[in-house]
Write a structure and sequence with these properties.
Structural class: alpha/beta
Distance between the termini: 64 Å
Helix content: 40-55%
Shape: globular
Bound molecules: pyridoxal-5'-phosphate
Radius of gyration: 22 Å
Largest sheet: 7 strands, mixed
Length: 461
């Protein structure tokens, strides 16, 4: 490695991240704005860290992509040292270039992405996975063991619900579902076996919000004796908001999980997941990933590093502007019964949204997801929604019928029968997830065109 190589390491990443998140530099004199920490996060997401401890790419405008399943070790001693240092916190803060051994253990392109994800979320460390579900499984597996319990908000992404109810119980990890907007419901679900409080906010797909700081307070107030509160951890799925719109670690979460497949990847070309949090989870996450094997490929890591993360802020700013226009249009439309978008004044949790969902510059950032329900009795509304979406599937140019979200293309889907089909019907009804509910993920098209396509399709129902 060249002499230019400087270690940044997780500790430095944290310092960098927290400085950036609080914009301490705003009063600095112009001529002093050369220290890396004085630049704003949006700029960092594009220029990255050219002194990554994972690779010296000082002379590249774009970081290189690596493709090597195994690495030359040089000597048995160095190989042995590599195994000693793998997933060791000490080696990590020492900061020299890691001794790479085998892709499944650690890999430089992925390592660079992880540094960037950590400071985008204001966390000390990030570990990436092959998909969002692999990241969620890892976060829950390293924090639980047979006999422990999870308390989860009752409405969740369908596969997360299936993981909690179909798979984890086989390993003796059980989940109690509660309404995490309701103190009594939440506290009633806590027991001395509770280890993890898990939720999404905004909730997929209804966009209900959970007050992260308030749930943290309830966790801290939990009755000693009844609840082992020193061992209670909060894990937040921040996929819907993205770190641009919300940073749960700063509000009291212990770990954040992401599907990188969505807004962070942004272009719909790659799948990925990440767990972000304090340094103490770095080693267990790496060990878990090594043995369960769900690593992110270096090629996917590279796309997210080079295209996704650097454009996140710009995409979110534009997408949420359009989302606001679309939500306002839907709200005024006579065929629409209800519109859920945190940016609308009429959104029931609008005040919480304003407090909790803010950009790196502290501006209100309600995101790019909209959920709405058509008018009519249940059966009529469902049929209308099907006609509406089939019409879009066949005729609309700017809106596409597809699952997934957070892409540059506007996507529409029906959570009840698609992404959330794993939830039992009674549960869906009780949670405000209606058969005719429609989820929109707003992309980067001209918002006039999106509204036009929606308007024409609404005339058909
Ligand atoms: C898509 C999604 C996931 C799962 O991510 P994958 O990358 O598809 O595995 C988890 N949580 C939420 C909120 C999602 O939208």
């Amino acid at each position: 490695m060249s002499g230019k190589f400087h270690s940044i390491g997780p500790k430095a990443t944290r310092a960098l991240g927290s400085d950036l998140l609080t914009n301490k530099d705003s009063n600095m004199k112009k001529e002093h704005r050369t220290a890396k920490a004085s630049y704003r996060l949006r700029t960092h997401l594009i220029h990255g860290n050219h002194e990554s401890k994972h690779w010296d790419f000082d002379h590249h405008l774009v970081p290189p992509i690596s493709a090597s399943a195994a690495y030359r070790l040089g000597s048995v001693h160095r190989g042995a040292q590599g195994f000693v240092e793998f997933a060791s916190d000490e080696a990590d803060v020492k900061g020299h270039v890691p001794i790479y051994i085998y892709d499944r253990l650690d890999e430089p392109t992925r390592g660079m992405l992880e540094e960037h994800l950590a400071y985008a979320e204001g966390g000390e460390t990030a570990v990436t996975f092959a998909t969002g579900m692999a990241a969620i499984s890892a976060a829950l597996a390293i924090t639980n063991k047979a006999g422990t319990e999870i308390v989860a908000h009752h409405t969740l992404y369908g596969c997360t619900y299936s993981l909690l109810t179909n798979w984890l119980p086989r390993f003796g990890i059980t989940t109690r579902f509660a309404d995490l907007r309701d103190e009594r419901s939440f506290k009633a679900a806590l027991t001395n076996r509770t280890r993890v409080v898990y939720f999404e906010t905004p909730v997929n797909p209804t966009l209900d919000l959970i007050d992260i700081a308030l749930v943290r307070r309830w966790m801290d107030e939990a009755k000693p004796g009844k609840v082992d509160k020193d061992r209670l951890l909060m894990i937040v799925d921040n996929t819907f908001a993205t770190p641009y719109c919300q940073r749960p670690l700063a509000l009291g979460a212990d770990l954040v999980v992401h599907s990188l497949t969505k807004d962070i990847g942004g272009f719909g070309t790659d799948m990925g997941g990440a767990v972000i949090g304090p340094l103490k989870y770095h080693a267990p996450l790496l060990m878990y990933r090594k043995d369960f094997g769900g690593v992110l490929s270096s090629k996917s890591a590279w796309s997210i590093l080079v295209y996704g993360l650097p454009t996140l802020a710009t995409r979110m700013v534009n997408q949420q502007k359009s989302a606001t226009r679309v939500a306002q249009f839907l709200e005024r439309h006579p065929g629409v019964a209800s519109v859920h978008y945190p940016g609308l004044e009429t959104f029931p949790q609008h005040q919480l949204a304003r407090r909790q969902m803010t950009s790196y510059d502290g501006k209100f950032a309600p995101g790019s997801m909209v959920y709405f329900v058509l008018k009519g009795e249940e059966k009529a509304a469902t049929e209308a929604a099907d006609r509406f979406m089939d019409y879009i599937a066949n005729h609309a140019y700017s809106v596409t019928l597809a699952v997934s979200l957070g892409q540059i293309r506007t996507l529409i889907e029906e959570p009840y029968s698609m992404t959330h089909s794993a939830l039992p019907a009674e549960l869906k009804h009780a949670r405000g997830l209606e058969p005719g509910g429609i989820r929109l993920s707003i992309g980067l098209e001209d918002w006039h065109d999106i509204i036009n396509d929606l308007e024409i399709a609404l005339e058909q129902v």
